[in-house]
Amino acid sequence: MTLLQVKDLEVRFAAAGSGLLGLNKQWVRAVNGVTLNIAAGETLGLVGESGSGKSTLGRAILHLNPISAGQVLVDGIDMTHGGPIDIARLRHETAMIFQDPYAALNPRLTIGETLFEVLRVQRKVAPELIPRRVGGVA
Ligand SMILES: Nc1ncnc2c1ncn2[C@@H]1O[C@H](COP(=O)(O)OP(=O)(O)O)[C@@H](O)[C@H]1O
Ligand SMILES: [Mg+2]
Prior knowledge:
2 domains; four-stranded antiparallel β-sheet; binds adenosine-5'-diphosphate; binds magnesium ion
């Protein structure tokens, strides 16, 4: 089952200082035609030099950056022009761990405890079922 589909994704930013009065606007092509699929249970590592667009791609997938062209489908649902309900669902089911992990994760908790805590606070999973869910069983 494909959880995430990214098709020909492009993100462009107007270059600083360009396009005075909208003329001769210069664009930074941060993400230029990226296509990838991630299945349930699969992990994808993206490697590239600094400034090659890795963070912008992640942010665009999560709707934290505008998409210039292409498509993002989550669970088969097109999020590219997602309405507020789709975006709310996306926010609920995805998470970004930003570059400074100490700002995003509690270093005193294990990854298992961190996942447990999220499910406990969200109350979407019955308490007795949380350990199985954290273990990736259910
Ligand atoms: N909000 C923004 N406005 C303008 N340019 C940006 C913005 N965010 C990123 N960029 C540019 O997009 C390119 C890709 O950056 P980024 O995605 O942060 O790369 P990486 O995460 O691979 O280091 C860089 O040239 C960066 O300067
Ligand atoms: Mg980055």
